[in-house]
Design goal:
Layout (H helix, E strand, L loop, with lengths): L10 H17 L14 H8 L8 E16 L4 E6 L6 E2 L4 E5 L2 H51 L4 H48 L1 E3 L4 E6 L6 E2 L4 E17 L1 H4 L7 E6 L7 E8 L4 E2 L13 E8 L2 H6 L9 E7 L17
Helix pairs in contact: 3-4
Length: 349
């Protein structure tokens, strides 16, 4: 059997097609050209994916399905008490993912709550002392008023007048001291209460939950392991945020806009044509990534765009959504050009 691998573009592609057509005559036996995509004949492959066969105004680029990953990490160091999900599980938004051992923080919380009770008791004592000082200050003021009248009439001595005045000043100072103790006890209560709130927040963070609905892609640690702050525990894939990155030259990028229609055909299910829209166009040129094959030289600068699959469609086929599958993305550089029949939307029933 004679195998010819097509890896050309332009005139080289047409030459390769002629060689394939001559294989039966050159080898003496019938031969079938192998398609780069399993299940498609060479003719169908060229019709569907060959740049030479695309209408003017439609361009293509290879890519792969990419899901928005969500890294669920621990905010504080500790021992992983339990992992509540497994790889492949669907987790709802707010669903439990893992727990970190929180006994140390619960002990600190008990101490902080005790500090709040102690400072509240100190506040009650300060208020009682303030009331006592206020009563003494009022009594001293009344006594001074009487002595002051007697002193003005010549019935009290200067010493009695000075002692009554000094008593007023002393009791007022004691009242101000009691009020200062109340302010100090109040601020201490606020600080202790803040510590309680902080520890409650820490305890909440020791229970890891999913911020969005998604599928567990990786479980990165096991129960019982000790992890540091910021350690990743589980990676989720948001099944409603799926896209494909394409790399196109500047001449094509200049004719594209965010929101334009696009099409995706995946290698594994090439019989379907998936709708998409351009959701991102890079402002900076870059070299073609190593994993992407284009018809131009690899050194040529290209721009990255993302084509997004509609969320309602992803929700409909959630069980079939998988990241990493390779395929081909198509975009129109001329919106007046109709999609060809081979790129008409076709989805599973």
């Amino acid at each position: 059997m004679t195998t010819i691998i097509l890896n050309f573009s332009g005139p080289a592609m047409r030459l390769a097609i002629v060689l394939v057509a001559l294989v039966p005559f050159l080898s003496g036996t019938p031969a079938r050209a192998e398609s780069p995509i399993e299940g498609l004949s060479l003719e169908t492959f060229l019709s569907k994916f060959g740049a030479e066969k695309l209408p003017e105004g439609i361009v293509q680029s290879n890519g792969r399905i990419e899901g928005q990953s969500i890294e669920i990490a621990t905010k504080y160091p500790g021992r992983v008490a339990e992992i509540l999900v497994s790889e492949g599980d669907i987790v709802e938004a707010g669903g439990l993912v893992a727990r970190i051992d929180d006994r140390e923080y619960r002990a600190q919380l008990l101490g902080a709550e005790a500090d709040v009770l102690r400072t509240e008791a100190a506040l009650d004592i300060a208020k009682a002392q303030r009331d006592q000082a206020a009563s003494a200050a009022e009594l001293a003021r009344l006594a001074f008023e009487r002595v002051d009248k007697l002193f003005a009439g010549g019935y009290a001595s200067s010493l009695q007048h000075d002692e009554a005045l000094n008593s007023v000043r002393s009791t007022e100072a004691a009242l101000r001291g009691a009020e200062a103790q109340i302010a100090n006890a109040t601020s201490t209560i606020i600080a202790a209460s803040a510590r309680v709130s902080q520890l409650n927040a820490v305890l909440d963070d020791m229970v890891l939950v999913a911020p969005r609905r998604g599928r567990v892609q990786y479980q990165l640690v096991q129960a019982g392991e000790v992890v540091g702050a910021g350690a990743r525990i589980v990676t989720l894939i948001d099944l409603t945020d799926i896209s494909m990155s394409l790399y196109l030259p500047a001449m094509d990028i200049a004719r594209l806009s965010v929101g334009d229609e696009a099409r995706i055909v995946l290698d594994a299910v090439s019989e379907y044509v998936i709708p998409a829209r351009i959701s991102f166009i890079s402002a900076d040129a870059q070299f073609t990534p190593k994993m992407v094959e284009t018809q131009d030289e690899r050194e040529q600068l290209v721009f990255r765009i993302k084509i997004q699959i509609p969320r309602d469609l992803l929700q409909r086929f959630e069980a079939q959504v998988k990241a990493g599958i390779r395929g081909v993305g198509f975009v129109r550089t001329d919106l007046n050009v109709d999609w060809p029949a081979d790129l008409a939307l076709k989805l599973p029933e």
